[in-house]
């Protein structure tokens, strides 16, 4: 008699299923009458949509968060946002550390895959630093928000501040202030600066944090020369983030300068701060200080590019990531120059890194294309609005040209699937469904050239 084959899941499959489980539990809790403000509960599809957008830290909502959900419902959403930002595996590991339980090899592999790390060493310490660092930054953000929200909302401002801080750091873009996101605070420097800093810190990635802190300890002795000792990953993430924010702000400033619906009537300072905030939030945060449907076509298309790129790896942001973009550009430049070696900052990149970057780009394009075509088939919206929605969902941004609330059942399902695929990542999706093991023999197929480009 043959023995029954034991079902074993890969670490990638476990991570994917953990997000599905969180979404399912969240949807069940949100569909309960206690979760909504009205006398009746919301429909299950809207509860599922909200649970997905919170867990996937996207921010697209079919129902206004502030007026639809009770305090209980908002707490559920906030917990899902925190789980989505940190990852269930990270939170479980944190509980194990708090209980002084040893993290085994299987759990270590899960943490490694969850953060896309290259080593298994020091994972317990890494998780502890991530959790402590996250809560400290979110706490400081909440305190700074309170300087604005408590005078305006009273005691309720404390809850709004905590919710907004966690949502901003996790790049979720969900708020409980009103129905028009942060549009009422478009000219408030405190809200703009605090929200932008939270978004940037969450999007930079935890690896960059510790590397910058390590380097800053040498600042007294070495001055600015200490930054040369940053890792290649940190250099790429930091420089690309700064460049994208500045270029994005400049582009939006130019494209919207004479737009009566956005910047035209504002002072020069206000035009600059609104343009800067739009550039920051577009890269996967999802808070809106101007109605996205009021943007010019040029701005909308440029914002789609920023959304597609997203933040940096090992953080709370989505998109193909800044490092992926630079690796792809370096690969293209090396190919054009007919170089065998792909290098950045006098460091060579491995073929595995470049192959992964190409795979991320290809899979992301495929998801966006499929989502866009599917939405176009089931809705009557304009092509720009549909493409904006699809890119926003895939890159887990949460900005919309006022399309999400009007989606029909089919459209909501498409966006739910797109948000989930965007959050778990295109590479994770491919790996999870590829159960075949890598060949161990040395037999290779014949090589033949094809025409490219």
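Q: What amino acid sequence fits the structure above?
A:
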């Amino acid at each position: 008699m043959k023995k029954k084959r034991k079902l074993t899941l890969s670490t990638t499959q476990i991570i994917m299923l953990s997000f599905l489980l969180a979404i399912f539990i969240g949807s069940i809790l949100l569909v309960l009458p206690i979760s909504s403000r009205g006398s009746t509960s919301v429909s299950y599809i809207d509860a599922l949509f909200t649970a997905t957008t919170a867990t996937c830290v996207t921010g697209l909502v079919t129902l206004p968060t502030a007026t639809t959900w009770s305090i209980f419902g908002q707490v559920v959403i906030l917990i899902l946002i925190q789980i989505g930002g940190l990852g269930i595996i990270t939170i479980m590991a944190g509980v194990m550390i708090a209980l002084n339980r040893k993290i085994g090899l299987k759990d270590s592999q899960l943490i490694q895959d969850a953060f896309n790390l290259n080593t298994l060493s020091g994972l317990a310490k890494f998780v502890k630093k991530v959790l402590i660092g996250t809560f400290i930054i979110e706490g400081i953000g909440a305190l700074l928000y309170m300087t604005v929200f408590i005078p305006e909302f009273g005691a309720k401002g404390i809850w709004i501040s905590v919710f907004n801080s966690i949502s901003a750091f996790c790049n979720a873009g969900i708020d409980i202030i009103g129905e028009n996101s942060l549009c009422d605070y478009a000219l408030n420097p405190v809200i703009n600066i605090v929200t932008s800093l939270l978004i940037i810190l969450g999007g930079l990635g935890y690896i960059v944090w510790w590397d910058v802190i390590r380097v800053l300890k040498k600042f007294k002795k070495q001055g600015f020369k200490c930054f040369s000792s940053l890792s290649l990953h940190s250099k790429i993430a930091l420089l690309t983030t700064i460049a994208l924010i500045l270029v994005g702000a400049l582009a939006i400033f130019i494209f919207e300068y004479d737009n009566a619906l956005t910047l035209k009537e504002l002072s020069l300072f206000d035009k600059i701060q609104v343009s800067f905030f739009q550039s920051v939030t577009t890269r996967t945060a999802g808070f809106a200080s101007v109605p996205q449907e009021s943007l010019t076509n040029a701005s909308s298309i440029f914002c789609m590019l920023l959304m597609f790129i997203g933040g940096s790896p090992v953080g709370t942001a989505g998109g193909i990531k800044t490092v992926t973009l630079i690796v792809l550009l370096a690969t293209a430049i090396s190919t054009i120059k007919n170089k065998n070696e792909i290098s950045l900052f006098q460091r060579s990149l491995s073929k595995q890194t470049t192959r992964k970057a190409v795979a991320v780009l290809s899979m992301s394009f495929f998801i966006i294309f499929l989502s866009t075509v599917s939405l176009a088939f089931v809705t009557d919206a304009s092509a720009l609005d549909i493409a904006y929605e699809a890119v926003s969902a895939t890159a887990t941004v949460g900005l919309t040209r006022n399309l999400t609330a009007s989606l029909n059942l089919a459209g909501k399902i498409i966006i739910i699937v797109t948000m989930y695929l965007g959050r778990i990542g295109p590479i994770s999706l491919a790996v999870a469904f590829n159960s075949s093991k890598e060949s161990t023999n040395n037999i290779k197929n014949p090589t033949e050239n094809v025409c490219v480009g």
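Q: And what stands out in the fold?
A: Residues 11-429 form one domain.
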